[in-house]
Amino acid sequence: MIKEIVEKQNNFFKTQQTKDISFRKETLKRLQQEISKREEAICDALFADFKKPRFETLAAETQFVLAELKYVLKKIDNWASTKKVSSSWINWPSSDYIYKEPYGTVLIIAPWNYPFQLAIAPLIGAVAAGNTVVVKPSEITPNTAAIVTEIIKAVFKPHHVTVVEGGVEVSQQLLEEKWDYIFFTGSSHVGKIVYESAAKHLTPVTLELGGKNPCIVDDTASINLAAKRIVWGKFLNAGQTCIASDYILVHHTVKNKLIVALQESITKSYGENIEASHDFSRTVNQKHYLRLKEMLKGEEILFGGHRNDEDNYLSPTLVNEPKLDSKLMAGEIFGPILPIISYNTEEDIHNYIMNYGKPLATYVFSNNKKFQNKIINTYSFGGGAINDTVIQITNKRLPFGGVGQSGIGAYHGKTSFEIFSHHKAIVKKANWFDPSLRYPPYTLPMKFVKKIKHLF
Ligand code: NAD
């Protein structure tokens, strides 16, 4: 069945229909309408999957992709147009161009944590760039996978875009096929499997992976505001956000003040009985819940740690000074647990950060510009924010992606269009002039050849 889908999409791509910009716009507009029409049903699906608050589904899933669609529809003519560039003197007389060409048939594999946004946002870029697409949503959020399928069925013909639902095995079957581009969002572990499969066919990839994101709070930071913004970004989606702060590195002189402010901020956000709050999600399934429970064993809990095994509920939890070799600090936490680690010197920060691969995000809370810039310029990470968390994802003009361990490539806005397009370089040469200088036998004196760098 998968082979058949790929074959049909390849054949449709060959008809050249997706190269027509008005065809792309027409389908993207239909996608826009269908998502707007079903916004409430999407909220219901995400609530059924892991009690995701309506506000968070609207802000971070549906409105997010609708904003992306609006922007793409406004800009697509310009992005898709052939760009003329200056010619080299050495080719004179010629005119030189960059053509944007779709790759062909694209595979998008999505995770469960923002299950709607992370399936649809790359799809928008892939369709805008003129590709045919197979989307594989996460099996861990089945209600969202079902609505993604419904929407795509309503908007696209299956030879243009289709959904293949299923778990790891289906994903593996999909990866056996030859794709023209693979866009994967998920863990670094599976990212490596995807990269290996892609390498067999030299298929280009974007890998949007995870990491252990530090959040640094120095002694000049506005502590109460920092706490509010850290708590918001960390406990949004119950900590299941790839760019959430994974752990806090705080200057020892402001540690106690920060802990008090974080506690106050959590209570102000979710109330005394967090389990009853409509604004706090659940851990997505039992497997992840048990993983988090295991991480907390033997740790000093400063706040929270409340659980309900029946509902995969773990409350926002602050942990004091976990050891570097603890389970909590071994890898990405991806849940509502926030370790707080104090530092004395910048060297301590350095030693801590260097224990991990390059993270997807880094945050700095400080009123010291020199310190802010030092962190930005010293460490490699996907992206981040100064005096806030998570918000870098909301600017469609900023590329979103990781580096090293946290991924390959980036997307959103124009970057999405660019990654799903091959940039074809064309020189159109005039025929009325053809000096013999470049052709053998070479007669141009070497002293002139040594100067031709000025003509490139
Ligand atoms: P995952 O890697 O377990 O799964 C992602 C997708 O891969 C799913 O569709 C799944 O079915 C498929 N898959 C799982 N195992 C596979 C295998 N062995 N072979 C082939 N396919 C397989 O990730 P997840 O648990 O769904 O998502 C959480 C991870 O994703 C976290 O690490 C998080 O940081 C990361 N993430 C990154 C971003 C980003 O934009 N960089 C966004 C969200 C999540």
TrEMBL record:
The keyword Secreted does not apply. SUPFAM superfamilies: ALDH-like (SSF53720). Transmembrane segments: none annotated. Keywords: NAD, Oxidoreductase. GO terms for biological process: aldehyde metabolic process. GO terms for molecular function: aldehyde dehydrogenase (NAD+) activity. The active site is at E208, C242. Signal peptide: none annotated. InterPro entries: Ald_DH/histidinol_DH, Ald_DH_C, Ald_DH_CS_CYS, Ald_DH_CS_GLU, Ald_DH_N, Aldehyde_DH_dom, Aldehyde_DH_NAD(P). GO terms for cellular component: cytoplasm. It comes from the Bacteria. Residues 2-425 form the Aldehyde dehydrogenase domain. Belongs to the aldehyde dehydrogenase family. PANTHER family: ALDEHYDE DEHYDROGENASE, ALDEHYDE DEHYDROGENASE TYPE III, ISOFORM Q. This is Aldehyde dehydrogenase. It comes from Aureibaculum marinum.
